[in-house]
Amino acid sequence: MTDPVHRADVVVVGAGVVGTAVFHELAARGARVTLVERDRAGLGTTAWSGGIVRCYHDDAVLSDRAAAGWRYFRRFAEHTGEPAAFHTSGFLYLPAPDRAAGARAEAARLGAQLPVTWLEAEEVTKHFGHLLAGPAGRGAVWEPESGWLDPAEVTRGFLRAGRRRGGTVLEGVAVHSLMRLGDGRITGVRTSAGAVRADRVVLATGAATAHLLTSWGLAHDLWAQAVQVELFQPEAPVPGQPAYTDEEFDVNGRPDPDSDGVYVGHPTYHRVPSPPGREQMDAAQSRLAAAAGARRWAWLPGSRHLGGLRTAECWAPDGRARVTAHPDAPALLMATGFNGGGFKMAPWAAAEIATLAGLA
What we know:
Number of helices: 9
Radius of gyration: 21 Å
Structural class: alpha+beta
Largest sheet: 8 strands, mixed
Order of helices and strands: EHEEHHEHEHEEHEEEEHEEEEEEHEEEH
Number of strands: 20
């Protein structure tokens, strides 16, 4: 049998923002942890992320997980010793009309402990009427202290902090299979650089997860789905543009100060193979996003289209991700299936994985 390249308590597979957050958290709690990445850290789905950090979700469970991320990212340097600027653009959630009452109630629950508030329609118009293409519906959730971070900066920060805590990083190393004993127990992974023995394996592989689980003979309910975001540069500056999710017209995005533009995303509902290849921009999807965005934002018609970003992410059917031990392989911990929202959930996921690994 091949001698192990490393002996670790935990091996983390995948060095996107979730994998590196897990890597840092485990190392900070004293575990011997090895992070394995087939390319270079942060070059997968994370490289295309908008890095939006906000609290509100229709599901209170997701709100609380995201709130943990918001608190962490607001104090990222204190937690990691690494710089990562938090861009406070604010976050606006515009619910579909039939979900306004629930949004108001959830905003009130969150607002008891966080800077989250409900704006009635007239207040939305007062603050954001210069941006809107039409009526403000039945109100909106407003988070004045939410915003976004640079995903590359955050990922490399987690990586450096985890290394300082004693963690080991193997970049350019692909994981081929799980290592198992005769009774099926997992004892590590086989990689392109040899074996890495560990008591637990954490799978944080984004859109490649479905393929890996299937190839290893493990049941799952995950799939890879394309995500596409357009970048539009308005004819004139749009002061006060927040990060946003608009459920009425199904668009989301954030401002991009580097281009004086705004990102506009619209769901693709398009499943892709796992692992995905390099996703190319879809012109038809760009037109759909432009049409949907123009129903909400007055500045979008006449804006210059500056291209955009298209990648794939791991999807789960209930929207609550899969941050748990695999039911058929308890030593395999999964941190995946975030439906495109994994960045803001990364700190929560890391703490949850640490608990599952017995490091609470």
